[in-house]
Structures are given as C-alpha cells and as structure tokens.
Write a structure and sequence with these properties.
CATH topology of the largest domain: Rossmann fold
CATH architecture of the largest domain: 3-Layer(aba) Sandwich
CATH superfamily of the largest domain: Glycogen Phosphorylase B
Number of strands: 12
Mean pLDDT: 94
Number of helices: 12
Order of helices and strands: EHEHEHEHEHEEHEHEHEHEEHHH
Number of domains: 2
Structural class: alpha/beta
Strand content: 5-15%
Distance between the termini: 7 Å
Length: about 375
C-alpha cells in the first residue's frame, strides 16, 4: 500500500532529537519493511502548550489549507491508507480524518491517548476531536495497555490492537563488555518528568555513596545547569557528562557496559530502556507509567515501587554487588529486545494488524 504518514506532535524530520521523532521514524521503517510505500502526509505541527494558545486559530487555518492542498495533490496516485502517530489532547489530528474521509481510504492511529481529566482544564474541544478520530479509525494501535484502557474507557466502540514498543536493533550487533561498577543514564535535560527522574537518581546515589560506582550521563537540554547542580555533591571523578550524542555514539557508549539506571518518572514507556537492554545492560527503574511495558521485572531488570527512593537506591546497590544477577539479567535483556522487540518483529506484527483490520482495503 501507499501510506500517508503523519505525526502532529513532531515530524520525523524535526531537527530536535526525541523519543517521539525516533518512534515515528521506526514506524515508517516497519511499514516499509513490510513492503509498503510510505510518504509524509504533512509536516504541520498541531501542538499547543495551553488550551487558549494564541497559535490556535493559525493552526486550524493552516490545517484546512493543508487538507485542500492534499486533496488537489492526490487527484491521481492517492494513498491507500492514512496513518497518524501520537495524537493526544495537545496535538489533535486536524488533517488525517477529513482527508481520509474525502478520499474514501482507511484511517489508522498509533499511540493515541485520551485522559478525561483534561476535559475540565480547557481541552474538552480538543479531546472531542481526538475521540472522533479514534471512532473513525479502522484500528487504533496502542503501544501500552495503559493507553488502550484509556481509549476504551473514552471510546468503547473503537477498534484497538496492541503493538509493544520496539527499536531498530541494528546498532547493537555486539553485546556490552563487563563493567561492574559503571552506571549509565540517557535522557534529555528539561523541566518536568525528566528533571524529576534526574533528581530521584541523584538522591538515590547519595544513599549508596559508600559503594564503588561511576555514572555516565548522556543528554543535554535547557536544564543542563540545574541537572549538573543535582550531582554537585559527588566527587567529579564519579560523574561523566557526555552531552548529546548521535545514535551511533550512544550505542557505542552503551556497549561499554554497566547497569542502566533511570527512574522513569512519567515515562510513556521509554525507548532508551530498550536500547540499553539491546546492548546487554540490565535496568534499574521504577514500576511506574509505561516502564513495565519495556522492562521485565525480575528478568531484564529490577523495577521498584513508584516514588520509593530508598528502594531504588537499594536495587542499584544490589546490582553493583551481585555479579551473577547482573550477568543473568544482562543476557536476558539483550535476548528480550533482539527476539521480541526488534524492528523485524514489529514489522511482522504491524502488518498483521493492518491485514486483520483493513480487510479488502489492504489489498488495494
């Protein structure tokens, strides 16, 4: 099929690296690996920071203009499917539903999410658009059970399928070397959940200051100085600040081994967890939000209770001291990603979902 792909939060071509951009590119790659022809339907960003953002009227006008442009463009050689990735209350899809309806083609979403608490905070109109798109969709592909349950509660008549989060494991062709005392974290540095995770990590490491460890931190961002201040209590020889790195260099750093430590406050799921495990690093994180969807507690890592700094610190300490457990989980983590969460496996599952839900439209 010819697939028109759209990510209203952030285009796959957006210059700022992020998990959203990475997953968008990986979905496109999974579709292409299944034999489909994928092109960007639009690069319009529909994100609004607040319900009454001054850009609202402009976004709506640009979206209408984009719909008109696409309908003119596709008078011949139109796509067979519109595929929208990551629409939620701040990024409603204003383009895909009307285009798909006008062209008479199926509409599909991936990682749509709905939270009723936002209806009372000024986002009700946006969420109505989201719910309408979910109803129109031939299938809504959910990456986590948490998202699926939220959508089912809001739109019980919708059609849903689960596709576990995945990565392209091509960069992780060799397992990490042994590095018993090395800890690693990869994350952008910005206020909100990311900063909260950095703060929790610093607090936990302070509780095991007597143990032998070093921490390599990969990432950058507007809160760099504030994050560095969180770790200023430690000897500078213990903390390695690597900054923002290319995907290839991140993979190389992960192959230097150790234990991946990231609390995961508010994480939708976190592709960095899968990357670390693909390299053969066991994980210590919290059993919170979407983290349990990508880290198997007791098998590929240790997940501690949400908000429990002492338990998180103890889990890191145990991983540092128990070489047999660390080695066993490292091997299991790598197998888990390479066998269950690879791009090839995701491509197979995604194509099966489309076949099941598109019916005769799949063969057009």
């Amino acid at each position: 099929m010819k697939v028109a792909f759209y990510a209203p939060l952030k285009s796959p071509n957006h210059p700022v690296p992020s998990g959203d951009r990475l997953m968008a590119r990986q979905i496109m790659a999974a579709l292409e690996a299944a034999g489909h022809r994928v092109e960007l339907g639009s690069e319009l960003r529909s994100f609004r920071a607040t319900p009454n953002d001054a850009s609202r009227a402009d976004i709506v006008a640009f979206a209408k203009s984009e719909v008109d442009h696409l309908l003119r463009l596709w008078r011949t050689d139109q796509p067979h499917l519109w595929f929208t990735y990551h629409t939620y209350y701040k990024t409603p899809d204003l383009i895909g539903p009307p285009v798909a309806q006008a062209l008479g083609i199926p509409y599909v979403t991936a990682e749509a999410s709905y939270s009723p608490r936002h209806d009372a905070t000024g986002w009700a109109d946006s969420q109505r658009l989201l719910a309408r798109a979910v109803r129109q969709s031939a299938v809504n592909i959910c990456f986590t059970e948490r998202d699926r349950k939220g959508l089912v509660a809001a739109v019980p008549e919708g059609r849903y399928a689960l596709l576990p989060p995945f990565i392209d494991s091509l960069l992780f062709d060799a397992p990490a070397i042994e590095a018993p005392q090395r800890l690693v974290a990869v994350a952008m540095m910005r206020r909100g959940d990311k900063f909260d995770s950095y703060a929790m990590l610093a607090s936990a490491l302070a509780l095991i200051i007597d143990k032998s460890w070093t921490l390599s931190i990969i990432g950058g961002g507007p809160a760099l100085a504030e994050v560095q201040a969180l770790f200023s209590r430690f000897d500078h020889k213990r903390i390695e600040w690597l900054g923002e790195l290319s995907p290839e260099t991140v993979a190389a750093e992960l192959r230097l081994g150790g234990t991946y430590v990231w609390p995961g406050c508010g994480e939708a799921y976190g592709l960095a967890y899968l990357e670390a495990q693909a390299a053969g690093l066991p994980v210590v994180a919290q059993a919170t939000a979407g983290v349990p969807e990508v880290v198997i507690n007791g098998r590929t890592g240790v997940l501690t209770p949400d908000g429990d700094v002492e338990a998180f610190a103890a889990a890191i300490g145990s991983m540092l001291e128990d070489g047999a457990k660390r080695h066993e989980m490292a091997a299991a983590a790598r197998r888990f990603v390479l066998e269950e969460r690879s791009l090839a496996e995701a491509s197979r599952r995604l194509d099966l979902i489309l076949r099941q839900h598109l019916g005769g439209d799949y063969e057009r």
